[in-house]
Design brief:
Length: 697
């Protein structure tokens, strides 16, 4: 048990040690030395360093040293640098060294093991790399730079096919220059049959400029020396290149983009940024624990065929003559390409405004047509209202304002005052009709009633309206409609009824006094003839007896018809009397049972109302017997809630649907409307039909 506890304690302790070591290692920075062959202002250095920095993060401590080999080179220079670095980095241990160009690599071949023993080296920008270059050295890998002299010459001959002379500017004072010269010698042999080469190995600017200006027109310059001197002073690359090309019409080509943009036409250029980026990625892999032996040297050239548009224009070289796949710098960007976003933004904005203006114009034209149509309709409506004597009304239900518009005259009153102007006999029914519509029980409001006019006379009007606006709670807030004076129509209707009544009375009198008397005379003659035949015992006595019976029936029907058409004036003034008499005649004529109930408190004095109620009851009884096949009929006259009710009941089978649209029922409804009554027809609870006429007395 004690051994187990000791073992567990040892494991926990070991875990803490490992964790502390891991945290310490994670926090300790990694150190990389970037050793550049040339000075910081050299354009090649300006490309490689950003490429390296684009990969390495802030957790890497990057130290950059520039050897300045463009000014000094050789063993003595290397010795001085060794002594300097030995002093500067005495207490510094680098995890990886990145060397740029041949000078830095050559220096490390001599002094890496003395200054930084066992430190991996990643190189880039090294020219003329061969597989056997690293056979005597360990922990070396990198990116080989293979400048394409042959490709550049072929590109130059493509755009300048008449070229015969080539002036090559090269510097053999540096290790890189010596390697480039050996590559140049190999390339010259491949073009000896068609080109004359003049290789100029000098740094003196005056000599170089004199040779260039003396070249014939069918010549080109291959610039392979980045550094020139004037009066013993080094000229910056950009200025020396510009001085060479500015005063000469001879095309200048190169393989280093350090010269690009300063007067050379173009060439196949190494990409310093890409090489620096590739070298930094290899360095990171080493820091992450990958063995150097597992990182082979990248020998694929990272080169691009690039030309300067400004120099092509200056030398009148057509873009069509450039090799396929060429990149062009300084080419003017077309307006659309340069400002494409702004162009599209402008187009979209203009399109928006055009569409907006189009719809505005369309809307204005549509509005104008609509306004013209509205004016036309208003004129038509105005004429129609004037001709028909129609009044428009608008009721603000919330505020109670009721506005009437009559022939451009407008007046507003309170709704309560308008209610008071309604005839007392019509007021309750009209108020109820309006309430029913406001509650949604009817599609619209229609009514005929009497109202007090401005001249203090009762005026019959027809009113119709509808709710046109609701609030958020679906409560009516506005109602509008029309009002029409129908006083003349009502007077005409009364005249028509009076004429009809007179005509009925005349027809009834004619039937009673004319046809009735004739039939009575025939009845007497038939009776006398029957007695004579009876005394003689003639066989025709039976026939004459039948004739006499038929004549009596005809006389009875004629009297009933005459009474129905024209009750006696004294009788017509007593509604209960003529109603009970109507039931008696109906029973006598059709053999049906009847009953009559009358509340003696109900008195109707208006002859027009009495006449119309009589004919309504007469038509109802006729329908009960003729269509309903009733055997028992009854009439009730009573009052309820201030209303007089005439009710006709039967025990028949009901009125067929086709009979409900007949002339008889339409006549009953019409007569009810004439006296301002409400006519209801419904089926009885058990059997038969109930016809009720409700009116104000």
């Amino acid at each position: 048990m004690k051994k187990c506890k000791a073992f567990l304690f040892f494991l926990i302790l070991l875990s803490f040690v490992w964790l502390a070591t891991s945290l310490g290692m994670a926090k300790s920075p990694r150190h990389i030395l970037l050793l550049s062959s040339y000075h910081p202002g050299y354009n090649w250095s300006k490309q490689i360093v950003p490429g390296v920095l684009s990969v390495l993060g802030d957790e890497i401590d990057l130290v950059i040293e520039y050897m300045g080999s463009e000014r000094k080179t050789g063993n003595l220079h290397y010795q001085k640098l060794y002594e300097l670095y030995q002093h500067n980095f005495e207490d510094t241990q680098f995890d990886v060294i990145i060397a740029t160009d041949n000078e830095a690599l050559e220096f490390l071949f001599h002094y890496r093991d003395l200054l930084f023993p066992g430190t991996p080296v990643v190189f880039c920008g090294v020219n003329n790399y061969e597989d056997g270059l690293l056979k005597d050295y360990s922990l070396y890998t990198g990116v080989a730079e293979n400048i394409d002299i042959k490709g550049t010459l072929n590109a130059a001959l493509t755009i300048q096919p008449n070229t015969q002379h080539v002036l090559v500017l090269v510097d053999r004072s540096t290790r890189t220059g010596q390697i480039i010269r050996s590559l140049l010698d190999e390339t010259i042999h491949q073009f000896e049959d068609r080109l004359i080469f003049n290789v100029l190995e000098t740094n003196d600017f005056a000599t170089v400029f004199g040779c260039i200006t003396a070249l014939p027109e069918n010549s080109i310059v291959l610039l392979m020396n980045p550094y020139l001197e004037l009066s013993g002073s080094l000229i910056p690359i950009q200025r020396s290149t510009d001085m060479i090309t500015h005063y000469s019409t001879i095309p200048v080509f190169s393989m280093w983009d350090s010269f690009l943009g300063y007067g050379i036409v173009g060439g196949i250029f190494a990409d310093g940024f890409s090489e620096g980026k590739a070298a930094a990625n290899m360095a990171l892999s080493i820091l992450q624990g990958k063995p150097v032996e597992d990182l082979p040297v990248i020998t694929m050239s990272i080169n691009s065929l690039i030309f300067d548009y400004n120099q092509l224009e200056r030398l009148n070289i057509s873009l069509n003559r450039l090799p396929e796949g060429s990149l062009i710098i300084n080419k003017p960007v077309p307006f659309y390409v340069q400002y494409r976003k702004w162009v599209w933004a402008t187009i979209l904005i203009l399109s928006f405004f055009i569409i907006t203006i189009f719809f505005l114009v369309l809307g204005i034209r549509t509005k104008s047509r609509a306004e013209a149509l509205i004016r036309q309709n208003e004129d038509r409506l105005k004429i129609a209202l004037e001709v028909s004597n129609t009044v428009l009304w608008d009721w603000d239900i919330i505020n109670g304002n009721l506005t009437f518009i009559d022939n451009d005259m407008e007046r507003t009153i309170q709704y309560d005052d308008w209610e008071k102007s309604i005839h007392p006999e019509d007021r309750e029914q009209i108020i109820n009709n309006i309430k029913m519509h406001l509650l949604g029980y009817s599609d619209d409001y229609r009514a005929e009633f009497r109202i007090l006019s401005k001249s203090a006379q009762w005026q019959w009007i027809f009113a119709a309206g509808k709710v046109v606006d609701y609030d958020s709670q679906n409560v009516p807030v506005r109602m509008t409609g029309i009002q029409l004076d129908i006083t003349e129509r009502k007077l005409l209707e009364r005249k028509v009824l009076e004429v009809s009544r007179n005509e009925r009375r005349k027809i009834g009198q004619d039937l009673h006094d004319g046809l009735g008397q004739d039939l009575t005379g025939i009845a007497f003659l038939a009776k006398a003839l029957e007695k004579k035949l009876l005394s003689k015992s003639a066989q025709e006595v039976g026939d004459i007896s039948t004739i006499s019976s038929l004549v009596k029936q005809a006389i009875l029907k004629t009297k009933n018809l005459a009474r129905g058409l024209c009750p006696n004036d004294s009788e017509s003034e007593n509604l209960p009397f003529i109603l009970e008499k109507l039931l008696s005649m109906t029973s006598e004529t059709f053999g049906v049972e009847y009953s009559f109930k009358w509340n003696q408190s109900v008195l109707v004095a208006d002859n027009l109302v009495i006449t119309q109620l009589y004919y309504i009851a007469q038509e109802a009884l006729h329908n009960s017997i003729q269509h309903g096949k009733a055997t028992n009929v009854s009439i009730s006259l009573y009052s309820s809630n201030g209303k007089v009710i005439l009710e006709i009941r039967d025990n028949g089978i009901g009125i067929p649907s086709d009979a409900q649209e007949g002339l008889g029922l339409q006549s009953m409804k019409y007569r009810a409307e004439l006296i301002g009554a409400q006519l209801n027809i419904k089926k009885g609870a058990d059997e038969g039909t109930i016809v009720s006429c409700i009116f104000n007395n």
